[in-house]
Amino acid sequence: MGIIVQKFGGSSVANIEKLELVAEHIINEVKKENKVVVVVSAQGKTTDRLIAEEAEITNNPNLREHDVLVSTGEQITIAKLAMLLIKKNYKAVSLTSWQIPIITNSEFTNSRIRYINNETIEEYLNSGNIVIVAGFQGIDENGNITTFGRGGSDTTAVALAASLQAERCDIFTDVDGVFTSDPRIVQNVKKLETISYDEMLEMSSMGAKVLHNRCVEIGKKYNVPIYVKSTFEKDSIGTLVNNKNLEDLVINGVTKDDYISRITIVGLENKVGKTYQLFKLLSNNLINIDIIVQSFGEYITKDIAFTVKMNDLQKTLEVLEENKDILGAKEILHSENLSKVSIIGVGIANKPGVAADMFEALYENNINMHMVTTSEIKISVLVNSSEADLAVQAIHKKFFGEL
Amino acid sequence: MGIIVQKFGGSSVANIEKLELVAEHIINEVKKENKVVVVVSAQGKTTDRLIAEEAEITNNPNLREHDVLVSTGEQITIAKLAMLLIKKNYKAVSLTSWQIPIITNSEFTNSRIRYINNETIEEYLNSGNIVIVAGFQGIDENGNITTFGRGGSDTTAVALAASLQAERCDIFTDVDGVFTSDPRIVQNVKKLETISYDEMLEMSSMGAKVLHNRCVEIGKKYNVPIYVKSTFEKDSIGTLVNNKNLEDLVINGVTKDDYISRITIVGLENKVGKTYQLFKLLSNNLINIDIIVQSFGEYITKDIAFTVKMNDLQKTLEVLEENKDILGAKEILHSENLSKVSIIGVGIANKPGVAADMFEALYENNINMHMVTTSEIKISVLVNSSEADLAVQAIHKKFFGEL
């Protein structure tokens, strides 16, 4: 009789037919004599609708009141799901985050969980109830409602699983697990049986929007086994996210990130502090940098290249031009319409052949690489966006073959 | 610098244009250096929509979960109104009932307020905030959400005014006060400047749906001056509900109540306890009785007539037939399609001429009275529903003349 946490997102609870499917998944676990805690999001487009209504009032809402507004969506879902289960003769009870409570810091719209009081949930579980919890929200020490940002229900689910020392956390979604690439780009994607937390973090910070980073970070910290499953398939096994053995080499995925620009600063003075000065300047202007490559050029100067999102490009160029003299840069170049294509897999760093295989796939298809970076578990290359899908397909084929 | 409580109902907050009007009424009081507490209902048809969605799940919802569901409507309104005021550069903060808290008993869907903690509201008021409170709801001692039943926002407003010892409570509605009759029936209705709590109770338990009884009862108990005003008229004075001097004779209103049936039990044994036995029987069957008239008939029997709502008629007749022998009744008669027409006014009891004037108005219009009852402040007659509007018009003309 372990505790299982199940999470169902907005599209999984969008209407009464889908709530019936959700109820089936819950009842399955109850029949196995598990204690079940369910976390749900707002139904379908509810949150979007509330935000649209808010926009009629102001484009710059008070953030405390914004959180009061958008947190109502999940409250509607918990009540409906509890009613449905009770109608089916199961004991169920809904809990808002203040009824538990889930205590967060006071950063409205982007709060972080400080702690969860298990007492109320455990009492209800011990008296035979299915406990239905409103995702995405908590309260701060002063009793203000806070929310975690979009997708925050995943965070609620994994944090509850950690706090309650649940056997596992099942994240139900539209797709039946984590795949080796985006099925819209690659035909023969494969479902992963397992993936490590770190790989999942790399995957989700790239194109694959399966799990939100914060929920994976919590899962990693408290070692919560997370299953990504499909709401719409019976007996879905899905993908297990856990602490995989770092010795196993597997390439787990090929991902793509579009709308990237590269900026190259040529002839930056080769003095201590110049690189710091450059990135401090960008950070002060709230410009996010992704890849950075520094190459030594002439004797007393160096070249630095880095990437920014395309919608930050104009601002970045303006900031750099204004400060060209202070930075002591000769020239500022840029190129647009680039994509970052990456392979992700634990142990990549220990197998030099992996990078060679990846580059070979690109070479065979005449795809030019504008930049390369590597990490412990990831190799990324920058290619023209027009060739990015081909690059993903070629690399996927190299590592996973034809199905 | 007194405290003013303002309440705005669902139609007053239905959309952004109406919220702007509401904001004006609030800002008016702030400019007079008053501390303002605002109670709002759910917007427009929000509660109806939630109940319709609930009906897709079940026709017999768990009441705890029903209250979790329907209480979301007011939370949406408080956030929006607070945002709007903040956008206009006023300090404002929304409070749910659990943030205050407003503590109730545990009767879901029909809870009653036990006490209100003023502390949080007073802190916010003292730091210059307009406080926006979600109407219609509270929490019980175990932290469960409870609601007060439809129209419960009036109750929230008057209870807050009582607890905070506010100068007054303004109930903003569609109409500019309390009128002498229903303007859909009578042309020359007049607005009352003042009305007593008791008269208001009689008015609202009859046709006039201006204020809910429980809010008037609380107003009476704690002597809160209640103003009924129009949201849509500037500088509306409205009607003041307070403790009027009982010596002033005024007829304050003519009301009508439709769909009434009369049941007459002929030849009930004239024994002690028989009347009690009859009404206990009806009460056990959850049948609500309104008017009762007992007339002595023959020596050892009596006749009793009483009225029930028409949709209780069938059930009442069945119960009576089953127990005819136990009650010792000879015959059970009934008539349908009756209406109760009443005049209401403090001091009616001390002026016998009032009843005579009322009966004269009916006589002049050939309207037959099937039953008459009087109380300290009310005289009611039962007439055929087909003649009820004419009765109201005739009586109104008799007391208020042509305009």
What does it look like?
- The structure is a homodimer.
- Chain A has about 400 residues and is of the alpha/beta class.
- Chain A has a domain at about 5-175: Acetylglutamate kinase-like (Carbamate kinase, 3-Layer(aba) Sandwich).
- Helices cover about 35% and strands about 25% of the residues of chain A.
- The first copy, chain A, is built from 13 helices and 18 strands.
- Chain A has helices at about 15-30, 45-55, 65-70, 70-85, 120-125, 150-165, 195-205, 215-220, 275-285, 315-320, 325, 350-365, 390-400, and strands at about 5-10, 35-40, 90-95, 100-105, 115, 130-135, 135-140, 145, 170-175, 195, 225-230, 240, 255-270, 290-295, 300-310, 330-345, 370-375, 380-385.
- In chain A, the strands form four sheets. In chain A, strands 3-6-2-1-9-11-12-10 form an eight-stranded mixed β-sheet, with helices on both faces. A six-stranded antiparallel β-sheet of chain A has the order 14-15-13-16-18-17. Chain A has a two-stranded antiparallel ribbon with strand order 4-5.
- In chain A, helix 6 runs parallel beside helix 8 and helix 7 runs antiparallel to helix 8.
- The longest helix of chain A is centred in the first third of the chain and has 16 residues, at about 15-30.
- Chain A is globular and about 75 Å long.
- The two termini of chain A are about 40 Å apart.
- The relative contact order of chain A is 0.10.
- The model of chain A has no long low-confidence stretch (mean pLDDT about 90).
- The interface of A and B includes residues 61, 86, 143 and 145 of A.
